[in-house]
Amino acid sequence: MSLSTAYLILSGAIICEIIGTSALHASAQFTRLGPSLVVAVCYTLAIVGLAFTFKVIPMGIAYAIWSGLGIVLISVVGWTVFGQRLDAPAVIGLGMIVGGVVVVNVFSGSVTGH
């Protein structure tokens, strides 16, 4: 698998995690069947996709990207879809997470094993 394919799979895993987490909120503590099934399917796809990326991207790096971008994106979904507030410290912290993901991917040789 190429590095670009691994990143494509990782992107899909992140999207599945965002959909699954959004459905988790909508499941009302697993009392609604539809959203609960979406949670199970999406989380399964997210974990399987993440695992496949380990063939090319080191585990710690792949997980850092998956979890970091997942945190940021689900915060945006919470703000835009569910009306949850993000104050200035939250936005700054989320920006730092994005910065960390960028630093790892742009400057670290760990991503490609160099």
TrEMBL record:
Keywords attached to this entry: Cell membrane, Membrane, Transmembrane, Transmembrane helix, Transport
Compartments in which it is found: Cell membrane
Coiled-coil stretches noted in the UniProt entry, renumbered to this chain: none
Record's keyword annotation contains Cytoplasm: no
Keyword rRNA-binding recorded: no
Topology in membrane: Multi-pass membrane protein
GO annotation, cellular component aspect: plasma membrane
Molecular-function annotations in GO: amino-acid betaine transmembrane transporter activity; antiporter activity; choline transmembrane transporter activity
One example of a Gene Ontology biological process annotation: xenobiotic detoxification by transmembrane export across the plasma membrane
Record-annotated membrane-spanning stretches: 7-27, 33-54, 61-82, 88-107
Alphabetical list of InterPro entries matching this protein: EmrE-like, Small_drug/metabolite_transptr, Small_multidrug_res
Main location class: membrane
Assigned protein family: Belongs to the drug/metabolite transporter (DMT) superfamily. Small multidrug resistance (SMR) (TC 2.A.7.1) family.
Protein name listed in UniProt: Small multidrug resistance pump
